[in-house]
Amino acid sequence: MAATSISNLLSTPSLKKSSFSSSSSSSLSWRISLPSAFTAVPRNTRRAESFVVMAMDAKPTVLVAEKLGQAGLELLKDFANVDCSYNLSQEELCTKISLCDALIVRSGTKVSREVFESSGGRLKVVGRAGVGIDNVDLSAATEHGCLVVNAPTANTVAAAEHGIALLTAMARNIAQADASVKAGKWLRNKYVGVSLVGKTLAVMGFGKVGSEVARRAKGLGMHVIAHDPYAPADRARAIGVELVSFDEALKTADFISLHMPLTPATSKVLNDEAFAKMKKGVRIVNVARGGVIDEEALVRALNTGIVAQAALDVFTVEPPSQDSPLVQHENVTATPHLGASTMEAQEGVAIEIAEAVVGALKGELAATAVNAPMVPAEVLSELAPYVVLAEKLGRLAVQLVAGGSGVKSVKVTYASARAPDDLDTRLLRAMITKGLIEPISSVFVNLVNADFTAKQRGLRITEERILLDGSPENPLEFVQVQIANVESKFASAISESGEIKVVGMVKDGIPHLTKVGSFEVDVSMEGSLILCRQVD
Ligand SMILES: NC(=O)C1=CN([C@@H]2O[C@H](COP(=O)(O)OP(=O)(O)OC[C@H]3O[C@@H](n4cnc5c(N)ncnc54)[C@H](O)[C@@H]3O)[C@@H](O)[C@H]2O)C=CC1
Ligand SMILES: O=C(O)C(=O)COP(=O)(O)O
Which of 64, 203, 287, 361 has the lowest CB atom count within 10 Å? Predict the structure, then answer.
């Protein structure tokens, strides 16, 4: 798991210690608070309460809301208080969540906006012990600065194997024949199946699961095509799979296997219009999400024989109602969302998610973050001192602002000898945003919600690069933060072009302030700082 510890990137209010302070100002001197990377004030009662909870009990609390493998639970218990409470109603979840720093779920728990709102800012991370994150309200998570991580790899093979199991079982009527034998019947003519060899399988969604299904289906002698607008052609070529358009896939397939995520774009992609384009007698497997199929349209297509059979592991509403015409259809084979349910996959998923959640609670950036930029560990560690500098420059700049015109437009300039695509500035921008917003508002800002919060406050942050000559040994030479159209409490901070301007650089791993307005300075940005103008 690639993760590096730069704790303030993901800090949320309940882990913060108090340190921000403002003091009276004059036009000549102004005391600036430059908190360390870990500090800021709990600013409202709710946050103050959660701060107290953390202070009394340093161990974070993780709520595990669905069954998780033992190895994952052990990992969590080494670091946190673990509350395993299954089958909670939404109301119970909302009540419990205000006492939890992390929540771990599978596909059976809806992590709605209400859950984030009920957490009172304490919830720092939601871990999805699996792939699909359609049961988590990602916008709400982001707005609340709550990191969402998933476990994207450990159940790939299990899901692919279940897809193949459904494909073969469907083609040979295994489930129906088994039920009839158990009912005392011996219907050898009724359950004549169809062969797979030489048939065309269309894999819809050629990601991790889709490509493993394709690989296995080729081993069964099938001709495999795939539709995925975002899949790299060389990956398909390497497996011997042809990438085709959506319509082409529908038109030519004898079997269709669904492996795309449920998103607004994939919701009900198999609808009446799509079924009308399919070969009569097509067979469909779905181990992705029920919502990618219009289930009423599928029943119609089964009744008219366009679709000969369907094998479904997932449903729009889970569990589906007992009298669902889809589940009860004689040509449908159904399993209760078992794609990821092998001993091996569940153990792997539990470890993968426990590591990601513990890492996030320690302030690390997990490689499996779903709603925050994923930055490689080596880049993170190289940028670490610049991340601290960025936040401090933002804090300094905004504390110099006076007057009623507000902070609306901020320009950040990065001077570097690195090629533009060799310097990831997302972390720096997020930390400058944190520095700019936290001292003047009651919201907390972290890497997850920085862009959202800036946008919501109407703060426009533009970035500019100055490409320097010379050896690109350090990622950055200097960073400049410029606030436009404002007056300053410290008149000397206004540059010749009329903006508040502060510049900083990293020297021997320590952030330094090197320019205020048009004045060159060289001050280590540690502890408190008093700016005063002096006639020498
Ligand atoms: N039944 C079960 O227990 C399990 C179900 N799943 C489901 O399977 C899905 C796929 O899982 P992975 O392969 O691990 O994810 P993945 O992210 O590796 O692959 C998804 C693929 O779908 C493609 N895609 C996105 N929009 C598409 C569209 N409109 N048309 C065609 N392709 C599109 C993406 O480009 C990507 O290549 C998950 O999102 C999850 O919902 C995954 C594991 C277990
Ligand atoms: O990983 C996924 O997307 C799955 O659908 C598996 O769901 P589950 O964790 O078994 O509820």
Answer: 361
